[in-house]
Every structure is written in C-alpha cells, then in structure tokens.
Amino acid sequence: MEQDTKYQQFIMKRFIESYKGEEFDLIVIGGGITGATIAYEGASRGLAVALIEKSDFGSATSAATSKMIHGGLRYLSTFEFGLVRESLRERRVLTNIAPNFVHPVPFLFANYKNDRVSALKMNVGMLLYELFSYDKNRIKDKSKKMPCFKTLSSEKAAELIPNANKKGLVGAQLYYDCASHSPERLTLAFIKSAVSYGASVANYTQMEGFIVEENLKTKIVKGVNVIDKLNNSKIDINGKLVINCAGPWADLVLDKATLKQGNNVLRRSEGIHIITNKLVSDYIFSGFTPTGKHFFLVPYRNHTLIGTTDKEFIGNPDEYKVTRKVIEELLNEVNSSFGNGSKIKYEDIVYTYGGLRPLVEGQTEDVYNSSRKYEITGEKKNGIEGLITVEGGKFTTSRRLAEKAIDKAIRILKIPKKPSISENEYLKTCEIDNFRDFVLKKQKQYADLLPQQVEYLAKSYGNEIDALFEIARENPAYKETLNADGENLAQVVFAIKTEMAKTLPDIMLRRTGLAQLGHPGKEVLFKVANLAAKELNWDSRKLNTEMEEMEKILKIPN
Length: 558
Ligand SMILES: Cc1cc2nc3c(=O)[nH]c(=O)nc-3n(C[C@H](O)[C@H](O)[C@H](O)COP(=O)(O)OP(=O)(O)OC[C@H]3O[C@@H](n4cnc5c(N)ncnc54)[C@H](O)[C@@H]3O)c2cc1C
Prior knowledge:
Layout: E1 2-4, E2 9-11, E3 23-29, H1 33-44, E4 49-52, E5 68-69, H2 81-97, E6 102-112, H3 119-132, E7 150-152, H4 154-160, E8 169-180, H5 183-196, E9 200-202, E10 205-214, E11 219-228, E12 233-244, H6 250-258, E13 267-276, E14 284-288, E15 294-300, E16 303-307, E17 311-313, H7 324-335, E18 349-359, E19 374-378, E20 384-385, E21 387-392, H8 398-413, H9 435-445, H10 451-461, H11 465-474, H12 489-498, H13 504-511, H14 522-536, H15 540-554
Parallel strand pairs: 3-4, 3-12, 4-9, 6-14, 11-20, 12-21
Antiparallel strand pairs: 1-2, 5-8, 6-8, 7-8, 10-11, 11-12, 13-16, 13-17, 13-18, 14-15, 15-16, 19-21
Bound molecules: flavin-adenine dinucleotide.
C-alpha cells in the first residue's frame, strides 16, 4: 500500500512481486467475497495477512450473484430461521458500513392461484420476515429506511406491473429488501479495507500446493507454493495458518493438502442470469415458475436482469461456462410465468453470466432445496494442522462468516483476542453519513455531468469519486463518457493505477460496469483497450489477445 499525493488515496500493489519470505500469521486462498472479508477481519484485528487470488478479485461466484443483499425470503419455507435472521442482520450491517453500495429496493411478489406456496402462506412468511428484521431501521443513514410490507389486490398488482400475467393472479406482496450496486466493487472495497489495515494482497497468484512439515501423526501446514501468473514465477509464501476460501474450488484446494485427488467432494450448483435490453418493470418482480422454483426480474441500469437457475454441476469448475440450453430453460420458465402474452426472446438478451454455488449439504435430491448456510472447519480430522476450510454461504452473510473464521484463527494461533470492528466501521471508500446528501453535494460539484451519472459514479466510488475526477481534470480527454451511466476513461486509468486491474476484463467487468450490460460497442472497447495498453505497456499482440478474450466473454452462447 502506498500513498500517492496526486490521487490522495490508496494504491494497491501486488505484494508477490516484492515478497522477501517473511512469515504471515494468515494466508487466505481466494479473493472472492469470503476471502476478502476474512482478509479484512484478520488484518483489522491485528493479524499479518496475505491474500492470494488465482484470477482477479471477485471474478468467480462473487461476480455471479443476483446483486441482492437480502434475508432470503425463500429459506423460510425450509424453516432455516437462523439463516434468515443472520442474513437480515447482516443486510443492516452492510447498509451501515457500505452505504454507497447497499440500497433498499421495492420487490413485488405476485401470487397466482396454483402457486406452490399459497397467497395466505406468503403473507405469513412476510410477517415472519418482518419479525426477523425487527431492527432493520436501526441504521446510520436515515435516508435508507425501509417501510413494512403491504398486501396488494390483484388489480393493484396488475396496475403496478402491467407486464405481469393476469390469468390466475390473486394478489401480491410489496416489500423491501436490498440490492448491491456492484458486488464486484463491494468485494474490492473489503480488499481495500484489508489493505488499509496492512494486508498484503495479489491477484493472478495461484496456490499450487502446501508447504508441509510432517511428523508421525500429523501434517503441519507452514505456507503455500504459488505461481505468479503474470510472470510465471514460482514462489513459496510462509504462514502460520492458511484459510481455504476457494469457493467452488475449495475441495480441489483441499485435495492438495490431503494429497488424495477426489477425496474431498464439494457439491456445486450452477446459477445463471441473463440481461435483456428492455426495462420490463419498475419493481423487482418475483414469483414462482410452473415447476415451483422462484424467479425474478430486476430493473438494472435501464435493462432487466433475470434469474436464476439452480442445477447441479458435475465437472471441473475451471471448465464451467453458460450454455444456450440452460439459457433457454430459464427463458421458458420465465416466459410461462411473466410477460402477459409478450415473451422475452433469445434475441433480447445482451449479456449472460453464471457461477457455481458451493453447497455444504450433500443429501438433498434437488440442489434448489440445499441450504445456503456456511461451514468453517479445521482439518485436524484429516490429520492436518494449520489449515481451515470455509465453504458455502451467501454474499450477504460473508462478513459474519469472516468474524467467526477469525475467532477460530485467533484461537488456533493462540494470540490475544482483539475485538472485531467490522460490524460498525465504514469500509474504506464508504465513509458517508447520509448517501442522499452526499449525492446532492457531488451533483452540484460535478454539474457538467447528468445528475443520474454522478449518482451512478457516487455509488461505484463512494468518497473516492473526487480522486477519480482529479484524473479527469488532469487530462480532460479522460472525461469523455462512454455510456448512459456516465462511465468514463478516467475510471480506466484509476483502475490500472490504483486498483490492481491487469487485464481488459478486469477493467470492463469488475472495476467498471462498462461491459456488464453486454458489448459496449467496438468503438468503446477499442478506446478502453488502447488506453489500457498505454498504461500497462502492452504491445500490439497483447492488445489483440485482450480484445479477443473480451469478445469471447461477451458472446451470447449459440
Ligand atoms: C447464481 C447465483 C446467485 C447468487 N445470488 C446471491 C445474492 O443475490 N445474494 C447473496 O447474498 N448471495 C448470492 N449468491 C451466493 C454468493 O455468490 C456466494 O455465497 C459468494 O459469492 C461466495 O463467495 P466466495 O468468495 O466463497 O467464492 P468465489 O467468489 O467463487 O471466490 C473463490 C475464489 O477462489 C479463487 N481460487 C480458487 N482456487 C484458487 C487457488 N488455487 N489459488 C488462488 N485462488 C483460488 C477463485 O478464483 C475465486 O475467485 C449467489 C450465487 C450464485 C451462484
């Protein structure tokens, strides 16, 4: 971490490039939200932490979410009251500590005559949901207060959502939950917070094996062997304790410690989303499909985000990709439940993404019914010391999971316990008391942009927005906006200079939202790629490879 007086904020540096062999208290494998929250929790409680991520931060399951920070209404039907309460509590915590990222949004859950769960039961569920979120308005930012749910008549529901199917509609519930403006940047905010407390982090650094000391009965983990994928060098990192936060790869990482391939089997469930180019509803619309699963349509940046699926995935997570078959299955389910006659067509799709949920429950026949709880396990049972594995969970509950994982780490390391601060302290870049006032202030300050564009950037950058515009002030060419949300070339420079962006997909898909609505157009892609090439010293071959990779990611499966 370095201070740059020009941008007046943190510059993240890949520690692996200057690593000298020091011993960390904790090595975290995986830079998704689980690894990010654990690194922050550990560093903020005084541990010397290193985090390694084999790809980019937040590029796997953590980028594949429905963008919700929620209690999980549907887990009430499986009586997982503890999980719902914990999630609702964490929703409130994240609203407090990450005010630019987490925002209340209205949901409309439509009830139909033949639904798997009747309207009456849905109302009872809503009452329970309210009960479990009794403290939801105990928040610092009063502009984020959430009203109580309402039951609506079928007429009112149809009026609010003209595209809802009318046949069999018996009513609806209107309630509030939270959405995450950018799960990718929220993951990054946790990583920046970890760095601000001294954590060492590196993307494109893959764990290849464990450094192990063996005695008669046990293996003691003393660190990890990694490969720095940006320059192909092999490095050993020393650490007293390793936490495996590899998400859907957790079993494969564990295999390397137990030296038994396929010994540790993790169940994975595929979930995809599609984005269409039309806004079909002002509310998040949710309901049951004919097969009894739930679906939703989320208004998202003037488009519609549609999700999701839940299907067991068998195979190597590195080879996972979204297929036309699964997109069509989702479209069929949604079209039979929504649209009032006008169907969503394959050609309406501008972008698709998917991910694998690591599930800790192996017994349920249908993965849809598998629990979203998490588990934190020491590997002593496998005869291994110095290794903890974390599996399962939700984006929403990861901060709490991290608190518990670090409690366990502190016990194992036998160091004095320092209380956790993560529940109350703002994340780095998020120190904003009242988000509405903050946006109004920034709209006045940056009056040359449209108000909605300033709001979008304020959500993405929090109080780093001024550092971003400083770049644009130095070189007015970087001010050029590239999409309707006001995203601009200054963000590209900012991402590369300060946020460890190393590839075109890092810039287009995670540091910015430039390609999160599908292909931004050849011209924009070319401009961004050329600027990235200049900042990252790419030759023309590398530039072409990056462009090709981006085109591959943006292609709708056919
Ligand atoms: C379709 C879908 C929708 C979802 N929607 C929501 C939602 O709306 N709200 C919510 O709260 N939750 C949601 N979730 C759940 C949420 O996405 C996950 O709980 C969360 O992202 C898991 O994060 P993670 O860090 O454990 O895993 P990941 O994000 O997958 O991170 C694991 C990381 O480990 C890295 N890694 C693996 N092997 C190695 C290695 N050898 N060396 C170094 N790094 C390695 C990977 O590259 C990866 O980045 C959803 C999940 C899915 C699939």
